[in-house]
Amino acid sequence: MATTNRILSIDIMRGLTLFLMLFVNDLYSPGVPKWLVHTTALEDGMGLADWVFPGFLFMVGLSIPFAFMSREKKKPSDKNLLFHIIIRTLSLLLIGFFMVNMENYNQDLTGIDKFVWSILVYISIFLIWNNYPKESKFKILYTILKCVGILSLLILAIVYRSGTIENIGWMHTSWWGILGLIGWGYLVSALTYFFLKDRFGYILIIWILFILLNILAQTSFLNFLDPLKPVFGVIIDGNVPSIVLSGLLIGTLLKKYKEDQKQYLVIIISIGIVSLIIAFILRNWFIISKIIGTPTWAMLCNGISILLFAFLYYIIDLKKWQKWTIPFLPAGRNSLTTYLAPDILYFIIWGCNLHILFYKQMETPWLAVLGSIIWAFAMIAFATLLSKINIRLKL
Whose CA is closest to 335, among 51, 16, 18? Predict the structure, then answer.
């Protein structure tokens, strides 16, 4: 693998978390070991699936200082940089909004098959947010494709119906979806970095404040904010932003200590251990629960993510053990496409009643697990193939 100035462990950990996200999302839960899947809301514990999403959130935060550094090479004004943050956030919220509403779609009221409607939503998303070549004789065509995507998404929203014939509903925010949660967490962390830059001490304070906010949100102290929760509940809860901010903190330190890698490792390993200690202290009052979004779960996941990144940074960027990372690199560098593209295949498989997912069964647990592993690798390959024909999402 060619040596570059890029910090490869960032791409690889992002790719690993995406691979695991594809894996656990595909698992047939009744037929596989409990430690691989989500725990229930009131169960004090967590499985692999309960770490995967916060692991990705952590990487969202860790990547922010380097994303800013990349954009600053183009010398944008503060106004343009702030505009980019807002547009990226709104894009994630909008995509998440549509994905969440797929769950309650009523094809009898709408008149369009559920899988057809969902596939058209995804096609519209790709038309709007595809990373079209900047220097091309097809610029007019790309503009037309974007406009078609926008118009299509608008029509799909207008025709959408949920509920029953006695109580017809429209699209609404029951929750923001995975991408919406990422959007809110990104907004808090990106604005934090926009205003504070590389001031580690201040970023640490913001992180602690959101941990405290997450603790308070588990009590009745913030009930007076209930009217704001339908829109700003993710920020008020503090859980998701605190996880993304933990990544931002580690990313800021990585920039600061890029010439002193051993010192960097000592510092972040210490932060990771302290995070785990705080998690087990908080467990005296709050259970470990992803669904409830407890601070115990957040700090435990932060500790795991920080220590895992320290390990990957050591073996990949310091020791240069890089050949094993090749399968995960495309997912790490093309994360949004890798996450969304498989859903189109799911809808086609379900809509056409194809018996491709035969491995999803209780009778043979090892086959259910192996099938999902193969599916995850296949989806990374699928996203890689799409990128080769210039189909690659970028917000």
Answer: 18
